[in-house]
Amino acid sequence: MCLPGSAVAADHAGDGARLAAPCAGCHGTAGRPPADSVMPGLAGRDAAELTGLLEAYRSGERASEEMGRIARGYNDAEIAALSAWFAAQSPRSEP
Amino acid sequence: MTLTRRHMLVGGAALLSALPVRAERILPATGPRVVVVGGGWGGLTAAKYIRLLDPGIEVVLIERRTQFHSCPVSNWVIGHLRTIDDITHAYDALAKRHGVRLLHAEVEAVDVDAGAVVTSDGVVAGDRLVLSPGVAFDYAGIAGWDAAAATRFPAAWSPGPETAVLRAQLAEIPDGGRVALSIPPSPYRCPPGPYERISLIAAYLKQHRPGATITVLDANQKIVSKGKIFKAAWDELYPGIIDYRPDSPLVQVDAATGTLSTDFDDVTADVANVIPPQRTPALLRDAGLVPDGATWAPVDPYGFTSTLAPHVHIIGDATDQTTVGKVPKSGFIANSMGKVAARAAVAALSGREAPPPSLINTCYSLVSQDEGASVGAVYSYDPETKRLQVRPGSSGVSSQRSAAVALQAWDWARAIWQDMLG
Ligand SMILES: Cc1cc2nc3c(=O)[nH]c(=O)nc-3n(C[C@H](O)[C@H](O)[C@H](O)COP(=O)(O)OP(=O)(O)OC[C@H]3O[C@@H](n4cnc5c(N)ncnc54)[C@H](O)[C@@H]3O)c2cc1C
User: Which residues in B lie closer than 8 A to residue A25 (C-beta atoms)?
Assistant: First the structure.
């Protein structure tokens, strides 16, 4: 009954870097977008704030078709992992 | 084991004697190396992320072009909203900031067993290969295709100068003139791309060339992506300008008269843009990475390894979607694939197991000069089918066109360029 896939996925849900990597496609490497972007920066923001935002996008409470779709693609553990990883990134890139 | 392979190759007298100076100079003194072929959306991402994940791994990136040209947002240039300079970028930062070794050369062959590539500058061997060569065009099914046709009907569907050529051709259209555009059968790179191009050409004609029209010959049964959005925009914004003909594959061209023909119709136009059928480049086919009779390179998307040579990674548009899962051939997906392959290559080099893939796609298209729409999804790996699978609820298309999405579209491009090149 237990799917091997969900076991693998659960093992790796804590791997924030792996989950966060594709977010850089809009939000910049490690959540640092270029200057003056309409895409918000994610690096160094409070983890609870990011989790709250992703949950609000997922439920539709916060309106954005793009972020709504994306937030619905992650479960609670993954949202927690993503938020924790972005919170731990420096908002400025290394020189 | 792969290390031994490389050392044998580097030490092999036969190959070494054939190495020109430049290729010889970039051989590493020590340490593991990944050779990446193609400095486009997949290859750039893989190169940078391997270095971010493990700076101990040397990365050699081989690309024929000396400047990066973006296909995404290139329709904005054709529609005269931006210039070619706005979508052209230098490759330098990748070397300076991330220590990627760039070799601007033509890759002539891939030796899968040796883990090496033969370039116009010599042989470069690595412990791991990542191949992201994009697509090749297949004109074989188009009668009358010759050198004159290639000049008169630029595809502007690969990174480079043809974008500027098509833009300039469009500027020469007279009032009341005619544009023709042909769309190949799916799958081709960027499913909404042709329809974005049609929209921006129509917007240009409406604004600058009164009475001019665009005739579209689409090999597909209907608009391949964002159909409702494009149809509504075309009806409301460009009435009488776009003549859209589905189920109309291009079978013949005549460069002398500027004519595109289907089995039923001939369309003679002042400017004709032929977007040709596409497939994995011969480079990979000749290397044994595309089965006989197949069009695309099959991969296992867990680490984007070739099903025909599991130690070789293949990413980007060259991959076979029937083996990957329902992902589009998009730059966003190529970028996501590059990160998955980077993780897999780094894991393989350190003898660890790679984590499962997680990908996102968001494709933005303009439908007018200031409004756009998006389509997207989140993907993870399904071990049962060995395919990527859309996470339930995460897939969708914009409900309507909007100015907000048009703004996001440009800033998306700026962010992802930085993620690849910066
Ligand atoms: C008009 C247009 C609009 C698009 N818009 C979008 C969009 O809005 N969003 C989106 O996500 N995607 C978009 N795309 C799709 C996107 O461009 C592709 O999906 C993406 O480029 C695929 O990346 P790739 O690495 O597979 O190939 P490419 O980016 O084409 O990179 C391949 C690279 O390999 C090099 N190369 C190939 N063979 C050799 C060789 N033998 N030796 C040396 N170098 C070699 C090429 O020069 C090239 O730089 C668009 C495409 C087009 C044409």
Answer: 332, 335-336, 360, 362, 412, 415-416, 419
Could you tell me if B286 and B194 lie in one domain? no
Range(s) of the domain holding residue B260: 140-278
| Full-model pTM | 0.93
Residue span of the structural domain in which A64 resides: 5-88
What's the complex ipTM?
0.91
Set of chain B residues whose Cβ sits within 8 Å of the Cβ of A74: 378, 391
Ligand 1 midpoint to CA B71 (Å): 6
The residues, ordered by sequence, that sit 6+ positions from B199 with a Cβ below 8 Å of its Cβ are B230, B233, B234, B238, B365, B366, B367, B368
Say whether both B126 and B205 belong to one domain: no
- Assign residue B164 the CATH number of its domain: 3.50.50.60
Count of structural domains within chain A: 1
- How would you write the pLDDT of chain B (422 residues) with one tens digit per residue? 333 333 334 433 344 444 443 444 454 546 899 999 999 999 999 999 999 999 999 999 999 999 999 999 999 999 999 999 999 999 999 999 999 999 999 999 999 999 999 999 889 999 999 999 999 999 999 999 999 999 999 999 998 899 999 999 999 999 999 999 999 999 999 999 999 999 999 999 999 999 999 999 999 999 999 999 999 999 999 999 999 999 999 999 999 999 999 999 999 999 999 999 999 999 999 999 999 999 999 999 999 999 999 999 999 999 999 999 999 999 999 999 999 999 999 999 999 999 999 999 999 999 999 999 999 999 999 999 999 999 999 999 999 999 999 999 999 999 999 999 99
The number of domains in chain B is 2
**B353/A contact by beta carbon, under 8 A:** no
Same domain, B244 and B318: no
Q: Is residue A70 part of a domain?
A: yes
Does the beta-carbon distance from B419 to A29 stay under 8 Å? yes
Distance between CA A75 and CA A59 in Å, rounded? 12
Count Cβ atoms within 10 A of the Cβ of residue B46 and give its class: 0-12 exposed, 13-18 middle, 19 or more buried.
Answer: buried
The string of DSSP letters for B68-107 reads EE-STTHHHHHTTSS-GGGGEE-SHHHHHHH--EEE---E
